[in-house]
Structure formats: C-alpha cells, structure tokens
C-alpha cells in the first residue's frame, strides 16, 4: 500500500510540477505576445502609421491616372481659378483709391500695355499645360518624394524620436529572445508553442485529478480495513498539499481584451490593423496576494492579508491539524486548537468562498467585457471594427476546486476513522 501510494504521489507531484512550469511559461508567452501586439505598438504607433501612409503615398502617386472626363472637368476648374485670379489682380491695380503717383503709373501701365482679354484667351492653354504636368510620370515621382519628405519632417522631433527609440529597443530585445526578425514570425512561433502548452497543461491537469480519484477509490475499497486507514489518510493529506500548492501558484484566470480587426479606407486605400491587444493579465491566487500586500493603500493590504490568512494559511493549518489529530498522542489530538482546525475551521475558511468568488468574477467580467467590446463593433462601409475577448479560466482553477472538494471529503472521512473524540 505504501509503495503503491508513494509511486502515485510521486506521479501527482510530477504532474503538478509540470503543470506549474507550463502555467508560468504560458503566462510569459502570452505576456510577450500581448506586449508585441499591444495597441500602443499598432494602432497608436507612429512607426505603423508611417509605413502604411508611405505605402498609400507611393501607390497614389504611381496610380494617379486622370481620365478624359476627369481632365475636362479639372480643366474647367483650373480655368475658373485662373480667370478669377486675373480679375482679382486687375481689380486691385485699377481700383479708384490709387491716388499716389506710383498707383497712377501702375494703373496707366495696366490699361495701356496689359490686355487682360488676351490673357484670358490663353487660359485654356495654361490649364491644359498644368494638367499635362500633373499627369507627367516624373512629376508624380517628385510629388511622392515631397509628400514623404513632409512625413519624415513630422517624425523628426525629440519626443517622437525618443518614443521610436524606446520602442525599437524593446522590440529588439523580444526578437532576440525568440530568435525572430519580425512580429509576424514572433506571433506564429508563440501561437504554435501556446497550442502545445495548452494541450500538455490539460493533460497534466487530468492526470492529477485521476490520481485523486484513485485515492478516493482506495478509500472505498479499503473502508473496512481499519489497519490501513492511517496510512491512507496521511498519504491523502500529502496529495491534498500538492493540490493546494499547484492551485495557489498556477494561473487561475486570464483577462484578455483586444480589437480583433480594424479596417477603414484612407485615400482610396484600405488600412487594416489586426489583433490589437487592449488589456492582458494572468494571475494566480498567490500573485494576487503578493500584489495586494505590496500595495501602498491600507485597504488593499488588508484584503491581501485576509486572502493570505483564509485561503492559504487556514487550509495549511487545517490539513496539518487533521494529521496531528489522527496520529498524535491523545493529549495533543484533544488540544482545542488542533480540534478546531481539524473539524471546525472549515466554516471559517474562505477557500470555497474564493472559488465561488472567482467564478462570479469571471462571469461578471466576461459579461462586462463582452458588453463593452460589443459597443466597439462598427460594421460600416467606411469603417469595420471587430473586437473580441479571450478571458478564460485556467487549469489552476480546476486544481483549486479539486483541493477544496478533496479537503471536505477528508474532513468527513476523519470523523469516521478518528479514534479520538471528534465532537
């Protein structure tokens, strides 16, 4: 019995260790993915906009083709503008208030040497010349260069340069870490590894639960063999401690909100942003406790201490006390503190409350995110925005539930097998 349960316990420990490591690895991968696909490096990134606008400018300059109908309409517009300028110039130099000698000379020169009607007759030819220059391939290239030069001037400021430099350094570190050269390669690599981790994580989680089921099955099989009860119970406590350790340290919930796709038209060209992460967090109970206790606000510290006491210390004391009560001397087993933690602390322990609270928080947060992000979804001819969220409970939550239920079962078993007073 001892050898068999020890082997099963080693297996449980191995599965829990692997689950813990995979949970940490998954959190790091998703954090890097969220950082590299964050909206600040996408939709709100100057680099991204520079590349997209540069592409639009080059495309528009190269494909600027004016049809015969458009040329005719454009010529009318240009002729109207030129004639309006001529009329305005003529009105300025011939207006009555020009009383000075210089003004009279200018007026005399315009009336005698400048024939505005002749100039107006040349307007159609001037308009055609302007259109011809616009449609010239060399001028299109020059226009593209001028636009790109102005775009570069916009970026050449100290603040923008510092932001671009900081982003480039951060991105370079992540590329080096994963041995990639682009965000696309990084995303593909992370997604492939995450898929493998997810499968392995749930496999180890299932294996841990199977071990617990085997232990409970042994209790049922040997329920009448009192000589084996002590061994079974102590080994069961070790299984419970492993469940508690993994349940406290493995990720329990992930909050992931993102813009799945954003598409709109600018100067006749589609601009698309995909997988823009708005928010990502992955936390275990222990992570939450550490964050709250290290906070500066008294209320957050108080909440952290309460979670620490009722969800970590109380379960540990409860499991330890059940073992002491069963195997310890009668004087120690009958100790009020030991008996309290062994039989009565369950109603004060917040472990089961935490399980329900996390579940309710998940449901509430899930609904809140779904509602808020749904309001962002804008299907239209000029703009399409599709948001999504990948908020999900993690295997750590399942393991913690298993610990709570297993602990309750062990407390019930102890009442039936204890040789001491359990009242």
Automatic annotation (TrEMBL):
The chain crosses the membrane at residues 201-222, 229-253, 348-369, 397-417. Pfam families: PqiA. Keywords: Membrane, Transmembrane, Transmembrane helix. It comes from the Bacteria. The keyword Transmembrane helix applies. This is Paraquat-inducible protein A. It comes from Pedobacter polaris. Signal peptide: none annotated.
